[in-house]
Predict the structure.
Amino acid sequence: MLKEIYEQPVAIENSIRGRILEKEGRVKLGGFAEVADRLKSSQRIHIAACGTAYLAGRVGEYILEEYAGIPTEVDSASEFRYRKPVFRGGDVFLAISQSGETADTLAALREAKEKGLLTLGIVNVVGSTLARETDAGVYQHIGPEIGVASTKAFTSQVAILALMAVMFGRSREMSLAVGERIAKELKKIPAHIRAILKQSEKIAAIAQKYEKYENFLYLGRKYNLPAAYEGALKLKEISYVHAEGCGAGEMKHGSIAMIDENFPSVFIAPQDSVYDKMISNIEEVRARKGPVIAVATQGDEKIRDLADDVIYIPKTLEMLTPILSVIPLQLFAYHFAALRGLDVDKPRNLAKSVTVE
């Protein structure tokens, strides 16, 4: 797991290499070439995936709607075929799976094909079932991911969804300037991740401070809401403690009842469009004596006065912050579990590829 966390800068470089036309503010995804005309007339995207890939899809929903202007729905693939989704002309189905063998995702894909939708895939394993059965797709090119707890697959999937947003957006209403800016910032992401990875020892010290706690609440808003869920998922996958993700705006509707001095909260609070709201949520937790760990933008001194511990990430576009904010959460989960003497690469009861329903 730790090896794959550290492989993420190279993984992102491989996922975007040759696909960004920065001077044109455009993206070229060769895997979609044969269906390019159908994609130009697409009206809605249905994303289905499981686990970490599903959470990457949740980030993609925000990115595609805000930057490409395409209505996007995200389903847990295990529920997709049971809810009888309503499709319309121009709908596109996108399946996301690192292995390309996830049983529920393949079942959702086949349901979409049965209904006549154009089917796309984001997948890592070349020649996998998902790669073969979709009409078109994009390979992640991140190399094998062996650790059961997915790390580099998530950040690569989000990066590819950002590429897709530029591809769709530039054929619609996205300006050259916006396309150029996204392309430029995407290219900086590997260097930003390398900077975060240098804080591993600091994050290990924070994990040691909280090692005895058995409950954690992860909170985020907008783009970083799925990142909060992913951070909680990583911790419970490999350390077996209770950790749950929650929309910070939903905290007051129930989850805040759990907060006391023995229930730490992890806030993803970069300086973005919902920063002030997140600060207010941190203050609510502090008022109830809850310990606070914050993931914040480099240079944010205000948050030091509110949080017990702060992990900084470089500044980037709001849409790309989940790629950075999840790195400290992965490292925290790894160090937390390692301090407890657990096998982080082979967590109990879990398999790398879930090939049964």
User: Anything to note?
Assistant: The mean pLDDT is 95.
